[in-house]
Amino acid sequence: MNPTAPTRQRLIERLLQQLAERKALVARMGGDEQIKKQHARGKLTARERIDRFFDPGSFVEIGGLVRSQHVDFGMRVRDTPADGVVTGHGRVAGRETCVYATDFTVMAGSAGESHAAKIASILELAGRLRIPVVGILDSAGARLHEGSALSRPFNQIFINQSIYSGVIPQIQILLGPCAAGQGYSPMLSDFLIMTEQTAYMWLGGPRLTQAATGEDIDDRIVGSALSNMRAGQCDLIAADDEEALEMGRRLLSYLPQHCEQPGPVSPTDDPPNRREERLLDILPDSSRLTYDMHEIIELIVDGGSFLELKDQFAPNIITGLCRLGGRVVGLIANNPDEMGGVMESDCSDKYMRLMTFCDAFNIPIVTLVDTPGYVVGREWEDKGILRHGAKLLYGYACATVPKVSVILRRSYGGGNVVMGSKTIGADFSFAWPTAEISIMGPESAAAVIWADDLKQAKTSEALATVLEERCRDYRERFINIFSLAENKRFDFVDDIIDPRDTRAVLIRALEALAHKRVELPRRKHGNPPQ
């Protein structure tokens, strides 16, 4: 028997004991007292969140033994398990996904040098493995006492998020505070989910704003989830941690693993040829009256599949992900119930954001059209309405994914083009019999074309009568959908369809486009209007 064997065995046992003790300390995070405080706030710990987010038993931690290496300001004797952030990978519905979850029980989840380096590292790993990455954030901000040492790893987070944008899906779930420079990270992600009562995000929080400007702000209002959604910065709002994590899981189910995969296709019990009689009853008799486009969306898509994004931002346009025949689709629709469905700056930003994401990740785009066009007036001209409209022209023309539009009612002016006209690149464009396609709304067009006739009206009643007659004349001459469909030179629509068949028509069109390939001219990148 080798005389050194018992000694080696004791050494190994001792090392394994040390490893077990260290890992036990890591698992306890900031300790029982801090965990109790976290629960008292109505929040889960970082490890509880990870356990709920991933499939049971699938999470593999990376960098759990990392500690802060700083010694100043009492850090020499302060324990920082995992340096306040849990990183690793696991499976969500069987699909591999990377994660980083800041741990509020360790120094309030604040970011130090090693903490930031771990996040940068897991982002790089996700990009290399071509799998999605999810950030679960709950952090008081940066550790100012670590000084300039923070800059490089912190900025590397932003670099990695930027270079892997459009390569892998990036989701952030904000369950606590997120202040100052940390707030740029959610903005660099594809989607942000926030909890209604516990999540806050600002560039300058109450104390910083007070110190810099003397202004008192209420963080329950300015940095809240609702405030951020109304600013177009948050996509989904959840009631609590558990709902937010479930939203994250659901959102991932709509996304491919990376940019070279097609969009997911899932089995569905909803018949592809389902006809909806109710679609005949939603549109009002007059195009001047409004209705809620959500009703039409829910009747067309696979049952319960519509996931609306940014619903409190620019509600005059609806954006979201859904399934049609099991195939994931990015859906963009005007909503006449809000501002009459008019197009303006915020709705252009909202539309462009989803369209760009869908194009990056091979998700078809479907537009449902009912808009009088872009808003006009001094206020909007001063805000640069033209560049916002041009942004959508650029985005739609350059998008190479399948693009299908359905014109329900009004499709006027610039709204006709940016909402998916055949003339700007839609693969298929269908129209309901109620559709009206025109370079201008009939009232405005009639007022210009027959200005002399209108001037001759002696009374307001006579003016209204003449205008109504000229509008009727304009509709018959220029925006009769049957006349437009007859003339291939215009090429506005591929077919006029029975509204009840809209679902079946869309599903069949998407099936035909499943293998669409378009090569754009080679270039470094374009320069879209901003």
CATH fold-level assignment of the largest domain: 2-enoyl-CoA Hydratase, Chain A, domain 1
Beta content: 15-25%
**CATH class value of the largest domain:** Alpha Beta
The backbone outline, from C-alpha atoms, is elongated
- The radius of gyration computed from the alpha-carbon positions, rounded to a whole number of angstroms, is 28 Å
What is the total tally of β strands? Answer: 17
Q: Quick one: biggest sheet?
A: 8 strands, mixed
Low-confidence stretches: none
Q: Could you walk me through the main structural features you see in this protein, from its secondary elements to its overall organization?
A:
The protein is α/β, with parallel strands linked by helices. The protein folds into three domains: 19-252, 2-enoyl-CoA Hydratase, Chain A, domain 1 (Alpha-Beta Complex), CATH 3.90.226.10; 277-435 and 493-512, 2-enoyl-CoA Hydratase, Chain A, domain 1 (Alpha-Beta Complex), CATH 3.90.226; 440-479. The protein is 38% helix and 17% strand. The chain has 20 helices and 17 strands. Strands 10, 11, 12, 13, 14, 15, 16 and 17 form an eight-stranded mixed sheet that branches. Strand 14 (403-412), helix 15 (413-418) and strand 15 form a beta-alpha-beta unit. It is elongated. The model has no long low-confidence stretch (mean pLDDT 91).
Quickly list its features:
530 residues; alpha/beta; 2-enoyl-CoA Hydratase, Chain A, domain 1; 3 domains; eight-stranded mixed β-sheet; seven-stranded mixed β-sheet; 17 strands
